[in-house]
Amino acid sequence: MTRPSRLDDPEYASFAWKRYWRLMRWMFSVTLVVTVVALGSFWWRNGMVSIHFFIATAGAIIGAIMLTAALMGLVFLSSGSGHDEAIEDPFEEEADRND
After folding, report:
1. Domain boundary assignment for the chain
2. What global pTM score does this model have?
3. Closest CA to 65 of 24, 20, 18, 16
4. What per-residue string of b and e applies to 58-87 under the rule 16 or more CB within 10 Å gives b?
């Protein structure tokens, strides 16, 4: 039998999603700073190589960091809300019998 998740409560779900989006906004600002520093470093060392290089590098940095932040944020949301424990574990009975 599945257990209820705290995300089923609309009030708690609203709180949890607001916290997730606050984390994402914070990570986006950090990502922009990291991107500017990296592109500035490339420009300082090599000069203006190609605008396409800078666009591709900025896209790769922003994409990689934001995807990582989004997935880790969802892991924290799921774990912190108890949503992970709300599943039905088919091996739970088997583990009880072996003990």
Report:
1. 21-80
2. 0.73
3. 24
4. beebeeebeeebeeebeeebbeebebeeee
